[in-house]
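[User] At your convenience, examine this fold.
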Amino acid sequence: MASQKILEAKQQVVNEIKDHVENSATYVLFDYRGLTDAEIKELRRKLRDTGSDYKVYKNTLMSRAFNDLGVDLGDNLTGPSALAYGTDQIAPIKALSEFAKKHQALVLKVGVVDGVVSDQHELDKLASIPSREGLLTMLAGGMIQIAKDLSICLDLYSQQKEEK
């Protein structure tokens, strides 16, 4: 039987995991085996640049935390897993996906975006969405094009009225 001190320490870790999950819009489980120390530091830096972070926990403690929260991740809590989390819905997924393209050792397992469990295929789709700044630029470009077309039409109309 484990001592009370060990049980309390484990419960603190479970509470920490639950806190990260509850305060995150997105969290992703990924396999990090095969990454060097330098690559792990690079990954952590990329995640922090997006306002995200990750931490490695024991699968049993993560399983307990997810069960307490009512999140079913199926068989994805097998083998070494790390938990990446962030307040942005797409940022942690994009950072992990871009890093995985350069480093084949990193494998995305499963993610939860706004309470919806997403498999690896769904995470790939989400990673292909442009950033918020990119989407705002596209919107602004579309709005400018409408104003430009309107000004051209008004100019042509005014020239046609002057000829008459």
Summary: Residues 131-164 form one domain.
